[in-house]
Write a structure and sequence with these properties.
Number of domains: 4
Organism: Patiria miniata (Bat star)
Strand order of the largest sheet: 14-15-16-17-13-18-20
GO molecular function, one term: nucleotide binding
GO biological process, one term: regulation of DNA-templated transcription
InterPro entries: HBP1, P-loop_NTPase, ROC
Largest sheet: 7 strands, antiparallel
Protein name: Roc domain-containing protein
Shape: globular
Length: 841
């Protein structure tokens, strides 16, 4: 990772302002020659907007309003100003052409979780906080850590605003020094953690120092080398009195110019004509509301203007456009052949803000003739305002967006259906959007579908994980806390001793679901994700009540006649396919420090007594496997455990492979995953079979490499249609009859409750259908009551409360009977319909 901003390519360095030709002849504000982005980061009310306006206008400016999403202020600091006098060195003609795009990003909490997407090595972050607000002061160190997690070693500037509002006592207390002290202590703690792990690895004997250990030491040393020193100063300013504004201008300009000078060379060539033409094309496409293009389309733009352009030169020109802030290349965490490129980053930032509605206070005004034009007969299919309001409230209160609502949320961006779909796809690739269950039996919502966007359906729903509104309830029917006897299970744990940036873990869950080929969706809750790949269950979750932040990935399968070792091989291959995605995602956060350990189930080790959880450092077990040892000793809370290394690590691979390359090798092994075993669908947030693989993008078959071996997963026995496993124990201690009965009752209650919930839902659907004359058999209020009762039954099924589920079913049946007793006018043939409880039971 670069320590400084990447310098401009030789095409534009040390040239006078007029040497860049037509790129600057029209307007300095549209110059491409020397352009950079300044990103103002801070919470709401920190003073970002006032600071941005003051920097650009040259005079003190204040703003009482709140930024709704993003405002971009174009600043030409050396065009008709005296700011050159603030700097120590004389400027070249090229440097005088500097243009800065000052981004004023809105500071709501949820929006801060995706600000890092626009942090690049060429971007200068400026942390802004309100000196008169203690909560704003407390956020400074968190924002600085976010910046350095994404771009380690990035230069940054810290500005404390509202200094004019401080009393004499607050000025004497010097909050700035307190903030700097917090960051120094945090820095020392981080360095100590990393140095301790390096020390432990170096203390291993020569025989124990495997290539993977040496690679880990090298990686940790690289983290230390790029680990930034803590900030030493904070600029105190006031946009009202203009105090400190020149200091802010000087530091911004000096930081950008110094970074470019460190990367410059003496001789250069003018900007390539093809690059200038591509820039003109991008400007034209922006006017046509284009935001995202594929990498292939970008390649076609270059080849259109310069035939025979080499891939290396084209890559350099694309990098130059990204450095200038014109485009932003999106990292693809899957094996997709065609990456996406954002050609209008400010509009993408606005789209993210507009869709992440954190409250219901925003007022909307939609143009009916644009979204619901009149048909040839003169009628318009405008939705009921109440239905539209309900759909908007679902975003802020449930974190769910109906697909047909995206054009309405993004109405001021004026995008067509193709661009809307591309952005939806882009958000899914970035882990910011997750396919949820389709909404069924909701005819009123059909009116939300837009004639000009026929491919966007109202029943298709997407969840916004960063809003934190994903259901809390985890799976109870398809995953037990511990595996049954006869099940093989392996866990992979990421431990983050220094914590994670906001939003990283929810995005990691979505990444693994969306970008892993062959993953079948089962259940998604606030702290985890349950998937299937063949007959292998995959549970990705964040452990509860943990002092240190962790993420666990478990894989589980039933061992059949082919034995433990073959089942373990299948587990590792499936696990690796998810870990390849996870590793790529974590690699996009080069400043995030984590450790890896393995969590084997009890079938892989023996112990004197039951062990709640056995955690083994990954490098330790890889070292033993490379030495071809059959077993290894592990101490857990003063207990000795003997781990069967031969069974746990059947595919250690080449000892020279890095962990990432070893996982890629595992993921490419050819295994034939059979159909998944029958399982009860989780009542909450389920997707139909046709949608089990995210329809946001096609999921290709897993990549196949030239593997030296072909693995076959343990076959699923076909002599039984389904099987209920009674969880007794995983250890060898004797289980009491009382415990057996308790476990049996719990499983049976869950099963019965699930059957009741499913039955009442099916009956409600059947009874609410229209008769031959088009009349509805149930009144609307009764249907609502029945639906509410069935929802309560499903909730009771989740907790295994059969009695509560039964009571909810009774309530649903009563609601239906009440509706059916109502005689409609003019229909004398309508008779009373008896209770359907017998049908349900």
């Amino acid at each position: 990772m670069c320590q400084e901003f990447p310098g401009s390519p030789p095409a534009i360095i040390n040239k006078d302002a007029d040497s860049t030709g037509d790129l600057q002849s029209l307007s300095p504000e549209t110059s491409l020659a020397y352009r950079r982005r300044v990103l103002l980061l801070g919470g709401s009310g920190s003073g970002k907007t006032s600071l941005a306006k003051s920097l650009v206008s040259g005079s003190s400016q204040t703003s009482d309003g709140t930024t709704e999403s993003l405002d971009v202020h174009v600043w030409c600091p050396f065009n008709g100003t005296t700011y050159e006098n603030l700097l120590e060195k004389e400027l070249t003609g090229y440097e005088r052409s500097l243009v800065l795009d000052v981004w004023d990003l809105a500071g709501r909490k949820v929006w801060q979780k995706f600000h890092h997407l626009f942090l690049t090595p060429a971007t200068l972050p400026v942390v802004v906080f309100n000196l008169a607000d203690q909560d704003s002061c407390d956020e400074v160190s968190k924002i600085v850590e976010l910046i350095w997690a994404k771009v380690p070693g990035s230069k940054l500037i810290i500005v404390g605003t509202h200094v004019d509002q401080l009393g004499q006592e607050e000025r004497n207390a010097d909050k700035c020094q307190d903030i700097l002290g917090v960051m120094r202590n945090r820095h020392a703690h981080c360095i100590q953690k990393i140095q301790q792990e390096i020390h432990n690895l170096r203390n291993l004997s020569e025989s124990a120092r495997t290539p993977k250990c040496n690679q880990k030491i090298k990686h940790l040393q690289e983290i230390l080398e790029r680990f930034p020193s803590p900030p030493t100063s904070i600029i105190r300013s006031s946009s009202k009195t203009a105090k400190g504004l020149d200091d802010v201008r000087r530091d911004i300009l000096q930081s950008i110019l110094d970074s470019n000078r460190q990367s410059s060379v003496e001789h250069s060539m003018p900007i390539r004509p093809a690059t200038a033409d591509v820039y003109d094309d991008i400007v034209t496409m922006r006017k046509d509301a284009h935001v995202v293009v594929s990498a292939h389309e970008m390649h076609e733009l270059f080849t259109k203007h310069e035939v025979g352009l080499s891939s290396e030169v084209e890559a350099n020109e694309v990098a130059f456009l990204e450095t200038s802030g014109v485009i932003q290349c999106i990292i693809d965490f899957s094996d997709s052949d065609d990456n996406l490129i954002c050609i209008n980053p400010p509009v993408l930032a606005k789209a993210l803000c507009q869709v992440h509605m954190s409250d219901t206070k925003k007022a909307f005004r939609f143009e009916a003739k644009r979204f619901w034009p009149k048909s040839d007969s003169g009628h318009s299919k405008k939705p009921n305002p109440a239905v539209l309001v309900q759909a908007l409230e679902e975003v802020a209160t449930e974190g769910l967006v109906r697909e047909s609502m995206f054009p309405l949320l993004w109405q001021d961006l004026n995008m067509n259906e193709k661009q809307t779909r591309l952005i939806i796809d882009l958000l899914a690739r970035l882990g910011l959007l997750n396919r949820a269950a389709d909404a069924h039996g909701d005819a009123e919502k059909r009116s939300l579908e837009l004639p000009n966007y026929p491919g966007l359906q109202a029943r298709v729903q997407h969840r916004l994980p960063l809003l934190g509104l994903t259901p809390d309830m985890g799976p109870t029917l398809n995953w037990t806390p511990k595996p049954f006897k006869g099940d093989a299970q392996i866990g992979w744990r990421y431990t983050f001793p220094l914590g994670t940036p906001p939003g990283l873990v929810p995005r990691l869950f979505v990444m693994c679901r969306t970008n892993t080929p062959g993953a079948m969706y089962r259940h998604h809750w606030k702290n985890g994700l349950l998937l299937k790949m063949g007959q292998v269950s995959v549970n990705i979750k964040q452990p509860e009540a943990s002092q240190v932040e962790k993420v666990d990935l478990y894989v589980r399968v039933t061992v059949d006649e082919e034995g433990d070792k073959k089942a373990t091989e299948v587990l590792w291959v499936v696990l690796a396919r998810f870990l390849v995605v996870a590793q790529r995602f974590l690699a996009s956060w080069p400043g995030v420090y984590y450790q890896v350990s393995i969590l084997p189930s009890s079938m892989y080790y023996t112990s004197e007594s039951t062990v709640d959880e056995l955690e083994i450092n990954l490098l330790d077990i890889m070292r033993e496997a490379s030495l071809e040892k059959k077993t290894m000793k592990v101490d857990v809370k003063s207990q000795n455990c003997e781990v069967n290394v031969d069974c746990l690590m059947p595919l250690p691979g080449d000892s020279d492979l890095s962990i990432s390359h070893w996982l890629q090798w595992l993921a490419n092994l050819d295994i034939q995953l059979s159909e998944s075993t029958p399982s009860i669908n989780e009542p909450d947030d389920q997707i139909s079979d046709n949608d089990s693989q995210s329809s946001l993008r096609p999921s290709p078959s897993p990549p196949r490499g030239n593997s030296p071996r072909v693995l076959t997963s343990p076959p699923v026995k076909t002599n039984k249609k389904a099987e209920i496993k009674w969880k007794l124990d995983n250890g060898w201690r004797r289980v009491s009859v009382e415990d057996e009965l308790k476990e049996i009752k719990k499983v049976a209650a869950s099963f019965v409750a699930a059957v009741l919930a499913g039955a009442v839902a099916q009956l409600i659907t059947e009874q609410s259908r229209a008769d031959d004359h088009g009349h509805t058999l149930m009144e609307r209020e009764a249907k609502h009551a029945a639906a509410l009762a069935s929802a309560r039954a499903a909730q009771a099924a989740q907790s295994g409360n059969a009695e509560a589920a039964a009571m909810a079913v009774v309530a649903a049946a009563q609601a239906m009977d009440n509706a059916m007793l109502v005689r409609k006018k003019g229909n004398k043939g309508t008779a009373m319909i008896k209770s359907r409880m017998c049908t349900i039971m």
